[in-house]
Give the backbone structure.
Amino acid sequence: PTATASSGGAGTRVMIIGGDGYCGWATALHLSARGYEVCIVDNLCRRQFDLTLGLDTLTPIATIHDRVRKWAEVSGKYISLQIGDICDWEFLSQAFTSFQPDHVVHFGEQRSAPYSMIDRQKAVFTQTNNVVGTLNVLFAIKELKPDCHLVKLGTMGEYGTPNIDIEEGYLTVTHNGRTDTLPYPKQGNSFYHLSKIHDSTNMLFTCKAWKVAATDLNQGVVYGVRTEETMADPLLINRYDYDGIFGTALNRFVVQAAVGHPLTVYGKGGQTRGFLDIRDTVRCIQIAVDNPAARGEMRVYNQFTEQFSVNQLAEIVGREGRKLGLDVVVQNVPNPRVEAEEHYYNAKHTKLVELGLQPHLLADSMIDSLLEFAVQYRDRVRMELIKPAVDWRKTGVKVNTMGA
Ligand code: NAD
Ligand code: USQ
């Protein structure tokens, strides 16, 4: 069964892999609040990365068990929990058989580009974890629930920064007089981004070979932290990464402004990316679930609402921060990554809007409330975690524990 936004999600069973993470937790609550039957699958490795590398979220987050207990108390809705690794077939197949999902929303990957570039071991872990995990999900669908729709989180970074417009997944090419519609060329800029490309290739093949129904959501960089449900109680609060490994551009700049740290623009700052508010992430997932792909179809949507350069973001945060009395300065630091710093960028993003997405755009009011949020938690900020931490040119075979 599928559900429409108007009928609510009642009866629709959605497994959320990576449901303890930043996007997954917000999505689990969003869908549960709307009547979908939600099961969170997560092996908590994201929390382990923080413990291992000495990082921490800006916000104090409760354990996953306390989170779902509190959610039941606040909402009267029950979220089931399966703690385990999707790379472990024994575990994943049992989770599938017992929950019988109509949709699997797959957020459960190692998602940091810098983490994947720390050393050989973490590059290999990232690609093994992500590619094997997704392969297992594809096998689980084929063998255990062939009509289950896969909603997979990809990334805009699969496309890289080509000197032509970026389409939604496919490009029609005429070559030597013949025309075909082909997967859009992929050019990842980290072992993490490359893992997503490998996933997309495996998905496309299994859609053809096994008639899997899949939606690949090439998401841009997410910002924000508040959603209606995660703000309903302090125990439901979402994670907020600001460190040099897991923190993403706009979320980092906001925290930097709140604590008086110069905004860390890498290199020339002309790097342009697609961005979206986390309140739109959760809506996009609901839209993909409510309008599933057909069997054998591999749909690709570009999931972002606006594009900005890093310089533009720094300028916006600086302007709004100064209005709130914060002393914000921008600093161009040497770019630790290997990427184009001045480039053409024009990416299509109309398909989710056509299905009903009403974007929350990055208005001044959004930046203000995010800045106020960061100021509220600024005593928890550890300044030493802010600096860019991983240099793409130095990724080596020696195990790097990122110790002080
Ligand atoms: P996150 O690290 O906060 O959450 C990922 C969750 O998946 C974690 O809770 C982790 O424990 C779990 N996980 C990882 N490997 C697993 C495994 N093998 N088995 C079970 N659970 C596993 O990441 P996020 O920011 O919420 O991102 C979620 C997804 O969205 C990722 O696939 C990411 O690539 C994609 N995405 C994120 C952003 C962003 O800006 N945060 C942007 C575009 C795409
Ligand atoms: N950047 C800075 N200063 C910073 C942090 C980042 O200038 O302090 C720059 C980076 O060099 C890069 C851009 O901002 O050019 C984006 O970096 P990011 O860390 O915000 O995002 P990225 O590494 O691409 O990864 C994040 C998520 C990832 C997701 C991706 C979407 O961690 O899971 O796939 O955003 S996208 O960028 O569209 O590929």
